[in-house]
User: What shape does this take?
Amino acid sequence: MAVKTKKRLPDVADLTKVQARVELTRLALELGGHDKRYYQDDAPSVSDAEYDELRKRFNAIEARFPEFVSSDSPSQKVGASPSGRFKKVRHAVPMLSLDNAFAEADVLDFVGRIRRFLKLGDDDKIDFSAEPKIDGLSMSLRYEGGELVTAATRGDGAEGEDVTANIRTLKDVPQKLKGRNVPDVCEVRGEVYMTKKGFLALNERQKAAGDTIFVNPRNSAAGSLRQKDSSITASRPLGFFAYAWGEMSAMPEDTQSGMIGWFERCGFSTNPLTKLCHSVEQLIAFHRGIEEQRAELDYDIDGVVYKVNRLDWQERLGFVSRTPRWAIAHKF
Ligand code: IVH
Assistant: This one.
């Protein structure tokens, strides 16, 4: 069946732009249908080989006509090929998201709410850890007895996918936590990203090989983590910044900035632009400063994050539905 289909179709090299457009649309629909039957219905309607054949042709057409690659293309989807299924992992502590601020007034409101909630006076100082908001994929790394045991994607926040073998290939992720007296259970969380330079070079190589062209570094990082062959992940320019945690059997520090220092002592990379701020004015200045540097950074960011530095205050502030009251993302 697959062979017959192949015979009728013109070579990708001979396709006109119009033919390519039409075929990409048709293949995207067909692949979407197969994905749904495979992932949602657990009832695949084609063999893995036939599916891979369709994808290969789809990718080859996109590689010849990169101007047709869009962010909703099947080539950009996490969870691409049937052979690329990963085991599910339930997060011991859910991975939540952040509320957004777009204007300075939203930041003032955020700080005002915290002040009222904690019943602080106007003169009481609140320190914030101000951090770039990395546009990558959040990851939870579980260490038991200091050894990396599981790396899981965020997924829906409650359950992610087990990408441990692939994460082990990242130089920024220690297999074993450095230092003495490491708590027995440590879940270190942060962002996997692809460097912008590395992304451009990778797409050049992919194009030359007639392979998937990625739309942006984030999609490219996602595709790189979803490899069944870890040596492919190892060849990709991926980095990891640690900035949060999940389950901890003991807390080594009592502030966010202290935790960042602890991640570094354990052997992680943390974002060098992270700064401790002591006032709303400093938060706003941080946002402005980072926005000015944004284009020069070798990784994508889509804003900055402010976090109440004291962890006892974070605990008192808690969460409103699925976002913390003690942090906010100030977008660009
Ligand atoms: S803290 C409870 N810090 O933004 C929330 N998140 O919308 C803990 N992100 O899913 C997240 N940089 O993928 C935090 N410095 C940073 C971040 C960051 C990027 C992402 C993360 C999260 C999303 C929240």
